[in-house]
Amino acid sequence: MKRLTTALATTLAMTMATPGWAGSAATAETPLVRQYLAIHARLAADSAAGVEESAKAVAAAARKAAPAAADRSRMERIAAAAEGLHGRDLTKLRAGFEELSREMAAWAEVVGVAGVGLYYCPMAKAHWLQAAGPVKNPYYGSSMLACGARAEAVR
Hints:
The chain has 155 residues and is mostly helical.
């Protein structure tokens, strides 16, 4: 029994020490978050350049970060949503980003992400994560860059 308790404690400690994993605070520099924020910045700037590459990196980081069966399905949903971001059509990329943002926001509510907040656009009726600073709406870009506000939770 003592060995089992020690093994469980060791496994729990290793899982909690994994950056960006449930039980440990992620940051804007966690690979998963960093690549997501890169997509956000590009869409807010009305650019499709680099979105597909960052989306692939999000998918890879999500799959790499999923050691526990309960959290594996959440990370798989993030990876699948990220893989839907391809091509250069901003309208399609923004629609895919909405799905990715929904999954990332759900993950961030559980994990907590230092230096990153949840935002909501009433026009798009969609959330996104963003580093601290002025609102930079990824759904409308330069046409309505400041549309939105910090949100407490996904509605």
